[in-house]
Write a structure and sequence with these properties.
With 432 residues, this protein is of the alpha+beta class. Helices cover 65% and strands 11% of the residues. The chain has twelve helices and seven strands. The strands form two sheets. A five-stranded mixed beta sheet has the order 1-2-3-7-6. A two-stranded antiparallel ribbon has the order 4-5. β2 and β3 form a beta hairpin. The chain starts with a helix and ends in a 7-residue tail after the last strand.
Length: 432
């Protein structure tokens, strides 16, 4: 009876640890939340491993390795490209769990002056493991309630736990209450050192990946700035040409007026205004920068035979900076223009821009038809461009701008209709 009770407690303990590990890995690697399928696979795999290893008398070391493979497999279901990292973290998680279970059991044994807490075949031997489970549950709850934890905070927390374990095993080695074999103590001391080294290596790897990503984004940002510079330079060239021809235009108008040809003069003025009319006529938001942006994208859409319809309800005097709003609108509209341009026949090239305010939220929705097949990679949409830099940076730039206002940029598609929705939280600014 006691044997079956111990087996049941072991199964329950390992299931709890596996589910917590699944959650912590997904949170630490910024993966998608584990779905029901991953959770069920984790629970079933854990039960099978515990029962099989118990019946076959497999050592805890190999049991931990098998558990690490089960957790990594379940975690990597939606993110197969990070399977190796998931496996690495799972292995060190199992080592750390076994290490701290030993420390807690030995600590109880020292406190009570009895080695029964180290006997896994007795009910008392379950005490240390369930103390550890309680700590893991509290840790998972803390991480769940603080989703905004930075990497540095997580690294300090993990480093503190690992260092505390190293100090604890050194202290345990000098005690005389329990008779713990020297080879067992030596093994746990070696594993504690390995855990510290693993934390350092993972931190170095994380910093390297962050620096590589930053370098890539800087390169893509430079390309984006070059594109914007080219656009501004083209606008400047148009204005420069008009200024250069200013004297000739004045001479022609003077001649019309001198000969009292007023209709010809008015027609000539309309002709001069034509290049900039579409960029200056419509007031959408009252913000000159945003209005120019929307009108310029409409002019670009017209040049590409794309129908761009806009409905704008923009709140006055908000804390939303023009630069941030331009980053969101510009990138979403640029992506829509590039996708809609490839649609045939031209009559189906449509883009819809909607800006609405809902209470203290600003919602920007851009919808467009597309022709190419949409692919997903790393849980995100994958561009079909040959030069992928601008596309990746454009969406990330919009997301970064929205994040400043506790907002998000989400994308979805249905049939051949693509939709991008940005939400921003704002508060009004009183105008004196």
């Amino acid at each position: 009876m006691i044997k079956w009770m111990i087996l049941f407690l072991d199964i329950l303990a390992y299931v709890l640890r596996s589910v917590i590990c699944l959650f912590l890995i997904c949170r630490s690697l910024k993966l998608e939340k584990p779905g029901l399928r991953a959770g069920v696979l984790c629970v079933v795999g854990t039960i099978v491993v515990v029962i099989c290893t118990g019946l076959m008398n497999i050592t805890p070391f190999y049991q931990g390795i098998l558990m690490a493979f089960v957790i990594a497999f379940c975690t990597g279901q939606s993110q197969k490209e990070k399977l190796r990292m998931c496996l690495c973290i799972s292995i060190f998680y199992e080592i750390a769990v076994s290490f701290w279970e030993f420390l807690l059991s030995a600590g109880l044994g020292v406190a009570w002056g009895s080695g029964v807490f180290l006997d896994k075949t007795a009910l008392s031997g379950q005490a240390g493991g369930w103390l550890l489970n309680l700590f893991l549950a509290v840790l998972a709850l803390f991480v769940f309630k603080h989703p905004d934890l930075t990497y540095k905070e997580v690294f300090r927390l993990v480093s503190s736990v690992v260092m505390a374990g190293f100090i604890a095993v050194i202290t345990l080695n000098s005690q005389t209450v329990l008779d713990i074999p020297e080879d067992t103590m030596f093994m746990w001391m070696i594993l504690s050192v390995i855990l510290m080294m693993a934390v350092l290596v993972l931190n170095i790897s994380r910093q390297y990946e962050a620096e590589k990503e930053l370098a890539r984004l800087k390169s893509e940002q430079a390309e984006l700035l070059e594109r914007d510079y080219t656009t501004l330079n083209q606008a400047y060239s148009v204005n420069a040409k008009l200024f250069h021809d200013f004297h000739n235009h004045i001479g022609v108008l003077r001649q019309f007026l001198k000969n009292e040809k007023y209709q010809e003069a008015a027609a000539y003025l309309d002709e001069l205004q034509e290049p900039l009319r579409e960029m200056t006529d419509t007031v959408w938001t009252g913000d000159e920068t945003i209005d120019y942006l929307i009108n310029s994208k409409m002019a670009a859409a017209a040049d590409r035979q794309i129908s761009l319809q806009a409905e704008v309800e923009f709140p006055r005097h908000t804390n939303i900076r023009s630069a941030d709003l331009s980053a969101i609108l510009g990138n979403l509209l640029d992506n829509a223009l590039e996708a809609a341009e490839k649609v045939n026949p031209p009559e189906q090239r449509t883009i819809s821009l909607t800006i609405r305010r809902i209470h203290q939220m600003l919602v920007i929705k851009v919808e467009n038809h597309f022709a190419e097949t949409i692919q997903a990679e790393h849980g995100q949409l994958k561009t079909t461009k040959t030069q992928k830099g601008l596309h990746g940076w454009g969406l990330k730039s919009a997301q970064a701008a929205a994040a400043k206002y506790d907002g998000t940029v989400r994308t979805a598609y249905e049939g051949n209709l693509f939709r991008a929705v940005a939400t921003l939280s704002y508060h009004g600014i009183s105008k004196e």
